[in-house]
Design a protein that fits this description.
Elements: H1 11-37, H2 40-48, H3 52-62, H4 65-98, H5 104-137, H6 139-156, H7 158-174, H8 187-200, H9 205-216, E1 227-228, E2 235-236, H10 241-250, E3 255-259, E4 266-271, H11 272-280, E5 297-300, H12 305-315, E6 319-323, E7 329-334, H13 335-343, E8 355-359, E9 362-366, H14 371-378, H15 392-400, E10 409-412, E11 415-423, E12 426-434, E13 445-447
Parallel strand pairs: 2-3, 5-6
Antiparallel strand pairs: 1-7, 3-4, 6-7, 8-9, 9-12, 10-11, 10-13, 11-12
Function: Involved in cadaverine and putrescine tolerance in stationary phase. May facilitate the efflux of both cadaverine and putrescine from the cytoplasm, reducing potentially toxic levels under certain stress conditions.
Family: Belongs to the UPF0053 family. PaeA subfamily.
Membrane topology: Multi-pass membrane protein
């Protein structure tokens, strides 16, 4: 049954009331979306700058129940009134026009449907879509303007607000849910904001990558940034002066481990600056001098880069030797290695690049490149059995189930990984080629 028509109102009066109801509904729509979309960090900044309205909005976000109760009461009441007024105002005019071509009963029904469609369209466009998009465009500015009248309405409608708000609270308790807003900011939230900033042109792509690398410090192990064992230049405690000078010239580094017998028995390290001072002063170099050899920091290979940074801070060092669970040296790491991981190609030179893009569909990658860097370069989300390895070489070993040889290939995820060079069982270079979509297998396939 249709609602009774408001025949006592003229068309002009009815249209005025409909316009007023649409404006009221638009007010509630903007109030609702702007409070939900307003960023707390921005509001906090505005509050700290002395804007009392921002402080009020922050309190509303912490306890939004009464606020949204007023919004819903207002919107539903307006929607019902809009339907009644709209049908009563427009339906007779639609019916009168249609009766020229249609029977009276049919014209009455079509006129009612026409008036319903027109009023509904006006409310959807001007009371919902437009104001909500406007509120989303600049939510902080909008909510600051609408917060005072919403606070006044909350006070005036207090009995109604209490009734519905407490009823909603009871439903939350019944279902064991929390009605409080979760204000925790996670690393994913920050990374998403940085990505949005990069897309908007506010943040450079390289700057975004640096920030992403910082958050990876908690997940990347020290092995992903270290110089591996076979690339470590070290001295033995009893090396003569001539050997030390020759090694400095052949392998110039800032720091050298000092070992007793072999690399797995590290007794300290020597700084290249101290060695150079002795060379320039024509003094003999002897690593048996305890004043020359410093105490070295030893860290497990399971530590994350963030944990290594913390150890560097605690002992005021920037060099560490990395050992595995069997107390065997697996590599060394410096503060510069960790920071290079964060800064990426902002600080690396072409000779140091582990991933070299040859063309649009192929890359030349060092076997010791961390898996996280490979995934980023190839735009992949994951590799199979990721927990079993940390480098590209480890991935190939797991997939082949043996030590890779030159020309071995692995095809997975639309890419072909081909071993180009192996030096003493160490994979030096891997050619990665993107295949066509039809050539991408669902499961790994290895061939020797």
């Amino acid at each position: 049954m249709r609602p009774a028509r408001l025949s006592y109102m003229t068309l002009t009066q009815s249209l005025f009331v409909i316009g007023l109801l649409i404006a009221t509904s638009a007010f509630f729509s903007m109030a609702e979306i702007s409070l939900a979309a307003a960023r707390r960090l921005r509001l906090r900044q505005m509050a700290d700058e002395g804007d009392p309205r921002a402080e009020r909005v922050l309190r509303m976000q912490e306890q939004p129940g009464d606020y949204f109760t007023v919004v819903q009461v207002g919107q539903n009441a307006v929607a019902i009134l809009g339907g009644i007024v709209g049908e009563g105002a427009l339906s007779p005019h639609f019916t009168g026009v249609l009766q020229w071509w249609l029977p009276a009963s049919t014209a009455d029904t079509v006129g009612f449907l026409g008036s319903f469609a027109v009023v509904t369209s006006l409310f959807i466009l001007f009371a919902d879509l437009f104001p909500k998009r406007l509120g989303m465009a600049n939510p902080e500015r909008v909510v600051l303007r609408l917060a005072p009248p919403m606070a006044l309405l909350t006070t005036l409608l207090h009995p109604v607000v209490v009734f519905y708000s407490r009823g909603a609270d009871a439903l939350f308790r019944l279902f064991g849910l929390s009605s409080l807003r979760d204000e925790r900011v996670t690393s994913d939230d920050i990374l998403a904001m940085m990505e949005a900033g990069a897309r908007a042109g506010v943040l450079a792509e390289r700057e975004q990558q640096v920030i992403a690398n910082v958050f990876e410090l908690d997940s990347r192990t020290v092995a992903t940034a270290m110089s591996p064992r076979d690339r470590v230049a070290f001295f033995l405690r009893d090396d003569p002066d001539s050997v030390i000078r020759a090694r400095i010239a052949a392998e110039p580094f800032s720091t050298y481990p000092v070992c007793e017998g072999d690399i797995d028995h590290v007794v300290g390290y020597v700084d290249a600056k101290d060695l150079f001072q002795r060379v320039l002063n024509n003094q003999p170099i002897s690593l048996k001098d305890d004043q020359l050899v410093r105490k070295v920091l030893i860290v497990p290979d399971r530590l994350t880069l963030a944990e290594v940074l913390e150890q560097f801070r605690q002992v005021h060092e920037d060099f560490a030797v990395i050992v595995n669970e069997y107390s065997l040296v697996v590599g060394v790491v410096t503060l510069n290695d960790v920071m290079s991981t964060v800064m990426g190609d902002l600080v690396s030179t072409p000779d140091e690049e582990q991933i070299v893009r040859r063309d649009e569909n192929s890359w030349l990658i060092d076997g010791v490149t961390p898996v996280t860097d490979v995934l980023r370069a190839l735009d992949l989300d994951t590799l199979p059995q990721e927990g079993e390895y940390e480098t590209l070489a480890g991935f190939l070993m797991v997939m082949l189930r043996r030590v890779p040889r030159r020309t071995d290939t692995v095809t997975w995820g639309g890419y072909r990984f081909e071993v180009l060079d192996v030096d003493s069982y160490r994979i030096d270079q891997v050619m990665v080629t993107r295949l066509g979509e039809s050539a991408a297998p669902a499961a790994p396939d290895a061939a020797a």
